[in-house]
Structure formats: C-alpha cells, structure tokens
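This week, think about what follows.
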Amino acid sequence: MGHCFSSPRADEDETNSHAQLAGGNVTLITTKNAWDQKLAEAKTQGKIVIGNFSATWCGPCKSMAPYYIELSEKYPSLMFLTVDVDELTDFSTQLDVKATPTFFFFKDGQQIDKLVGANKPELQKKITAVVDSQATINP
C-alpha cells in the first residue's frame, strides 16, 4: 500500500467528518499531548490501547469506523483512540503510518502489534488475542 496522506477537501465539514471516526467509547485524538495523556492514563489503569490512525477522506476508514465504535463498546477493558493522520501528520509519520487505516496496539506505552488496512476479521482476531492475554495475566 502506498502513502495515503492528503488534505481533506475544502468543502468537507470537518466536525461532521470527525464524528464519523469517533463515538461510543472511542476518543478522538487531535494533539500529540492528548495522545501522551491517554497512553499514560492507560498505563495507570492497566489498559491496552488500540490506536486507529485514520483520515476523514479515506473510504475504508469510514467503513471501519462503525465497527471500531462497536468494538469499543464490546471491550470496555481496552482503550480505543482514533487519530486523524491529517491533523497529526508528523506523529503519524514518526509511527511509520503508510496507509490508512492503520491500527496500533500499545501496552505500557510500547507497541505490541499493528494491523494495516480495513480488515474486520483480522482486527477482531487481534483484539480477542489481546483480551485473552489480559485475562491470563489478570484472572
């Protein structure tokens, strides 16, 4: 997959677009500071973070958003975040996001897994594995 970074269309309502990417138990991250705060909060709470690096103009991202929100409600023991790659371009580049959506899994502030692309079964499989690993650590 190639680079999917682009500016949103000028006629697009960004507030409405962001609403499509977040909801349920998903927090929209718009600053690096907010990301760092959420990772610190997750570490304190012993939660694994799933970061969805998306774009408002990305069709596959929009199709995954309702499913991601559904997963956030199904797995409250995990922290679900969405990052708009156009708002945090430098941060997204730092994490080597080359395509959207890209899902990162973090535990104690360290990346433990990654999924590139809008693959619902694979995302479910990775989340199930993470939840199962938490259950064996915290029975």
The first helix runs from residue 14 to 21.
